Amino acid sequence: MAISPTRDGDRGHDPDAADSTSSGTATDGGTESASSAGPDATADDGDLGDGATATAESPLAENGWVRRYLREHTAHALVIAVFAIYPPLYGVLLRLPGIDLGVVSFAPAAFFDAFLPGTTFVISMLFLGLFAMSFDFISGYTGYLSFGHAAFYGIGAYFIVLVANGDVPFLSEGTPFVITMLLGAILAFLAALAIGAVSFRLTGVYFAMITLGFAQVLYELIRNWGYVAANPQEGPTLEGPTPEIGVPYVDSLSVALGRLAGDSFENVLGLGIDVSATLTSYYAIGLVVVCCYFAMQRIIHSPFGRVMIAIRENEERARAVGYNVFWYKMAAFGFSGFFAAIAGALFAAYSGAASPDTTFYFLVTADALIVAIIGGLGTLAGPFFGSAFFEWLEDVLSSEQGGLAPYLREGLPESVLGADVGGVSFLEVINAAVDGRSQLYLGIVFVLFVLFVPNGLLGSVRDRIGGPVAKRLPDYLDRYRR
To answer: What average pLDDT score do residues 45-67 get?
Structure first.
């Protein structure tokens, strides 16, 4: 079970946590080591003694590594499957015919349009989810809150647009998007090291504020730097080639991103299925997000990740047992900046533009902090689910695409909408309290989560089932299968 760094005081601090973490205890949501299983666990299974001959175990056997790997990733496969089938399922639900119940009629399509997020909102959730996971990588697993994380998001976004426009020396405007994205991520990694070299001399709220200060310096610089755009306060727009995700320099293995300029496909495999540009971008961006998630998870479940958790639980103890905690923190900060820049690059590639207020501004970090707390700090996947909740709430309370307010205005009879209570009609209540009020209700939900669900959505589920979902879910499924 991952512990939110903001709740240590409430839970009581365990001075031995660093020792138990560094020795392989699964405090990070499932990482274990052979050393924690005792000396016998390191014995070679093939050495049976007394001249016995070991038999090679098939990878597909009951206890083979392939079966174990698939079992441990059942939860991941289910989540990926849900996101893979969501767009076509959403399209089917929007085409359902109305139902006449005699007294009243019910329109399922309008209902699902109001209460399910559209594909464009889910794409926004992918950007925000990856950015929030990169924020959780440093803040949730080392305990150092990076309030200036938007700086790395902005570096990735601006680098993509400037390279595509031919404004970066030594890089042509035809440089493949994947290469440009990785170069921008490396640049953000180096920027994180530079900021961390100063910031990690401080701890607690002082670290958070100095990172915020660095981000605001970059925000003001970009906002007033005429080189990046004719109107730097609005930011540059992508004027070069359409960004493509895939294998660089192989057109047949790449797809263009963008709601309008992206690739679309008609009659796929002769099945009469058309894939729009938005849907193509959804799957391409989702593939990058999945790869980044597994990369961060692999780092967290490595010996390096265990040291990160040891630093979070008891930095002095980690230093005392011989770890150079400064450089571990620097590397963790660099990796978090790397993945934040990839999120920014995806955002700029899909939207076709980047502006200071949507990338470098400190409220971008605030969004990541909010969804990380709602989803669960120190869980990695939790911020992703928190961003799904965030985008769902924004979609439901939005008037741009479906939403609750248009559904009520169109679905309720005039007699109900015009009902006057205290001089205020129900229609006026809808317009004032529902339409476009997602930020208001998200703030209320955030306060409720901090007070009553401090471990977030995924953290609370882990507490409930007694461990990481990926490790416990197969056991629960086996019970029902029997």
So the answer is: 52
